[in-house]
């Protein structure tokens, strides 16, 4: 028997907008990007997507966001997206689902008044800029380190680990345990975080170039194991220089700053606040 065609097939949701991703798809395989325009279709949330966003445990470990982004973009390997891409996609999904307005709250640095502001999402999306193929930083040793943005997987792992470690440390402080047990647990937590940070930093390094000298030609190191061993053994000064560069790179792609004028009587202080792309409170789930 031939399979019947669903008469409701033509009434499924359609893309509400198309966007350019900051990465341009350079750092991951995104099959749903148009070969011609290089744009990504954005669909509105379904009721199932909204249900996923209400699950705090799934939000914490990233599973909710993976399913929601995949549902609204057709992207299969969400974890390999850059963190820059994820922020833009979240903003576009909100626009496609709830419209152009984004409400934010911020505290005035002059008088501490809480200011509520409505931002124009379309205007923010117009600030999308495409990232370079790579970014580089030259270290004191003259090594040139080529970098790429953090992946969503690395960013999510770091956030989850920080949450877990903070919870465990708070529990240790509140528990009636001896000093040696607490110290052992503290050291274990710090070592686990240090190991994760090394892995994340290593993943962001594309290659390391050893410059040519009178005695030797230039050497390009791409072997991930060699890079990981190198990251583990470099000085704190060099590691901090790489991390500072990565922090700049991970903020590229879209204008995250909003201009605010304090509404408190007699203040009117003008300042900027950073738009937070936190999925736990970014979407309108009040209904």
Topology:
Layout: E1 17-20, E2 39-42, H1 47-53, H2 56-61, H3 63-73, H4 83-98, E3 101-107, E4 114-120, H5 121-125, E5 135-138, E6 144-147, H6 152-174, H7 179-203, E7 205-210, E8 219-221, H8 224-233, H9 236-249, E9 257-261, E10 270-274, H10 279-282
Antiparallel strand pairs: 1-2, 3-4, 5-6, 6-7, 7-8, 9-10
Helix pairs in contact: 1-3, 6-7, 7-8
Fraction in beta strands: 15-25%
* Termini Cα gap: 44 Å
Please, how many helices?
Answer: 10
Unreliable stretches covering 5 or more consecutive residues: none
Q: Total number of β-strand segments?
A: 10
Q: Structural class of the secondary structure composition?
A: alpha+beta
Instruction: Give the helix level as a range of percent.
Output: 40-55%
Shape: globular
Order of helices and strands: EEHHHHEEHEEHHEEHHEEH
Task: Give the oligomer, counting copies of the same chain as homo and different chains as hetero.
Answer: single chain
Concise account of the structure shown:
By secondary structure, this protein is α+β, with helices and mostly antiparallel strands.
Explain the overall architecture.
The protein is of the alpha+beta class and 287 residues long. The protein has a domain at 10-130 and 253-282. It has 10 helices and 10 strands. It has helices spanning 47-53, 56-61, 63-73, 83-98, 121-125, 152-174, 179-203, 224-233, 236-249, 279-282, and strands spanning 17-20, 39-42, 101-107, 114-120, 135-138, 144-147, 205-210, 219-221, 257-261, 270-274. The chain has a 4-stranded antiparallel beta sheet with strand order 5-6-7-8. It has a two-stranded antiparallel ribbon with strand order 1-2. A two-stranded antiparallel sheet has the order 3-4. Helix 1 (47-53) packs antiparallel against helix 3 (63-73), helix 6 (152-174) runs antiparallel to helix 7 (179-203) and helix 7 (179-203) crosses helix 8 (224-233). It is globular.
